Every structure is written in structure tokens, then in C-alpha cells.
Amino acid sequence: MADRVTISQVAEEAGVSAMTVSNVLNGKPGASDETRRRVQETAERLGYRPNIAARNLKGGRSGLIGVMTLDLTNQYGLEIVRGIADELAAAERELLINATYQDAVRETERVEFLARGLVDGVLMVAPVLDQQTVDAVLHTKLPCVIVDPRRLATPLPRVTVDNYHGMRQGVQHLIDLGHRRIAYIRGEEDLESTNVRYQGYADALRLAGVDIDERLVVSCDFSYLCGFRTTARLIAEHSPTALAAGADLMALGALDAARAHGLDVPGQFSVVGFDDLPQAAQTFPGLTTVRQPLHDMGQIAARALLSLIDGQPPLMEHMQLPTTLVVRESTAPPAESSGAGVSKAAGAGAMGDRPTDGAGGDER
Q: What's the Rg (C-alpha) of the chain?
């Protein structure tokens, strides 16, 4: 293997000092346009590549960013991590990924471990974020940004979405189609977003003059299986014409539960999700859902963390992104109101992907 090309070799070949080469390659002022051109052409011709590890160590940094996520199979977390990875790659940083499995003790231990100089900062995706973990971050002074915290009342910078207006818009879509018996599957009760999304559901019905039937509101974890079982029970016992779910996996379970009961989707039963995971567009029929900009959430969080590492606080402690309603084929007018029968109603629901911008919201 050929030896690594050094700055000194580039300097000798370009006829300038090593300091000039360093300044040019790091974008610093002081060199003429002609000198910059000659140095850059020489570096490219010789195949010079900066030694990032040495540069980071010289600056007292590792060049690594810690990422703590739910697990390595959860599509929601992986989409956020993908955004993080793209942003950090552009900044020539590497990821050190830890899976926490929603274990509060493990989260605290991981923070304390990473804060020993192993990483320059940490991004936490949907963490439990117990007080012990918050105290560990503050005590170690480890730069940290949270994506989708369970509770918003945290002294750490955080990135969330407008859960309220997102769910309200999704339910309003069902109301506009003519649905009135709209079931709702809540998420896990210890998440603040669960309550905020439910409020969006409740307010959409209230403003439309529809009384909430508490029998149609059920709590569930964020799994496909829970969505399937819960929807099967709701259909058998209470006959809703539509359902909104606090997460796509639950909504995908609802789609299959409706079909298992012999209902045509969307001709006899409509479903709205929340997330817009890749599976939402790949299922049949395509799932109408509220899109969280998961990739953008990761990018923005990574950008905010890099600013913290450089000693610049983020512009806002709470960065809230808007959601978007994406209308696909899982929603249509209820059969009794359209008078169209199953096949015609199903055809009315085949709208393809039609994003509708959701309203932005204030901090919550």
C-alpha cells in the first residue's frame, strides 16, 4: 500500500509553505486565488486526503457522535438515524450507535460511558429520559440534543413535530369524507405525544359537532399486533366506519384486522395512521397517514448538536417541525353516506399520494 500523501509533499510540489497548504485546504483566508487554485489542483493530483483522526485529536475531539436509539429494528428510529447519518457525513463525523431498548438505567449508564471523552456529543432518539439521565448529561456537560422526548419539560435542546395539528388534520380528513363513528387507538400512555395527538382527535370531533364515544377510544402499544387485536375488537363490538391510529404500525394492523373481518378497505372501513413510515406507501391499499418529517428531524438535531459542540447554542431550545397529511387509498366516504356500494367507494378512495401541508404550531 502506498504511503499517505502529506501536507509537506503537497507544499513542496506546489511551491508554497505547509502552513499555506493547511490554510487553503481548511478554507482559511490569506492566500491569493492563484495560490488556492494551484494548491487544490496539486492536492487532488497527488491524492492527498486529510487525516481526520489526527486533526480531531489535535483539537481535543474524537470526531465521533454518539447516537442512542430505541433499537436497531424500529423503522421509526431508523429513519431519524438515517437523517442524522446524512448530516454528520457531510460534516466528516462518524456515528457510534447504541440501542437502549427503552431501558432508563441503560440510558443513564450509556451517557456516563460516552461522556468519558469517547464522543464529542450525543443525540438521543425517543429516549425514556428519566431525571437521572438528564442529571448525568448536565453533570458531565456532554453536548446533547433530544429527538422526540417522552416529556417536553426537559432542560435539554429537543426536536419534535406538531403532534396536535397533525392528528387533528388526519381526523378532519375522515370527517370531511362523511365519517362520524371514528375509532381512535391511542399510543403508550406515558408519552406526552400520545395525549397531544388524542387532543387533536377530540378537538376535531368536537368542532365538527360530533360527540366522542369513549367506547371507540382504546389505548395500545405502538405495535402491529396490538393494532390488529384492538381493531378486531372495536369492529366486532362497536362497528366504527373509520379509525385513526397514533402510529403507522397500529394503523397497518388495523388495515389487516378490517380485511380479516370481511370489510373492504376503504369501501366499508377507512384507516388513518401517523408517521408515514416506508411501509405506509408499500402496503395495499396505501395508507393515508400524517407524515412526520423523520429524516429532517434527524438532520436538524444533528445540526443543532454540531453547533453545541462548536460552542454555539441552538437558535431555539425546542425545535418543532410541521406535519403533512398524505392521502392514499385507505380512506373513502362511508358506504352508507356515499350510497355507492363497496366497489365504487373503493374507487373513490384511490387518490394516490397527495400531501397536504399541516399547520405549524407553537411550542408545547
A: 26
Q: What is the pLDDT of residues 224-252, one digit of tens each?
A: 999 999 999 999 999 999 999 999 999 99
- Rounded CA-CA distance 68/127 in Å is 8
Handedness of CA 168, 172, 173, 175 (dihedral sign): positive
CA separation for the pair 190, 253 (Å, rounded): 22
Summarised one tens digit per residue, pLDDT across range 247-276 is 999 999 999 999 999 999 999 999 999 999
HSE-up of 144 (CA within 13 Å, CB side)? 27
Centre a 10 Å sphere on the Cβ of residue 318 and count the other Cβ atoms it contains.
Answer: 16
Question: What are φ and ψ of residue 147, in 5° steps?
Answer: -110, 120
Q: What is the pTM of this model?
A: 0.77
Indicate the pairing of strand 121-125 with strand 94-99: unpaired
Q: Among residues 227, 230, 228, which one has the least CA distance to residue 216?
A: 230
Q: Which of 252, 246, 254, 247 is nearest to 229 (CA)?
A: 254
Query: Are residues 328 and 282 in contact, defined by beta-carbon separation less than 8 angstroms?
Result: no
Distance linking the first and last C-alpha atoms of the chain: 56
More confident residue, 209 or 355: 209
Task: Pinpoint the alpha helices (H) of 47-145.
Answer: 52-58, 75-90, 104-114, 131-140
Residue by residue, what is the 3-state secondary structure of 248-261?
HHHHHHHHHHHHHC
Signed CA dihedral, 86, 67, 287, 210: sign only: negative
Beta strands in 176-322 (DSSP E): 182-186, 217-219, 242-245, 270-275, 288-291, 318-321
- Name residue 111's amino acid: V
Q: Helix, strand, or coil here: 116?
A: coil
Q: Is 294 exposed, middle or buried (0-12, 13-18, 19+ CB in 10 A)?
A: buried
124 has which bridge partners? 68, 146
Q: Which of 121, 151, 129 is nearest to 307 (CA)?
A: 121
Residues 208 and 272: their CA atoms lie apart, in Å, by: 18
CA distance to 66, 111, 202, per residue, from 100 (Å): 12, 11, 33
Number of residues assigned to the chain:
364
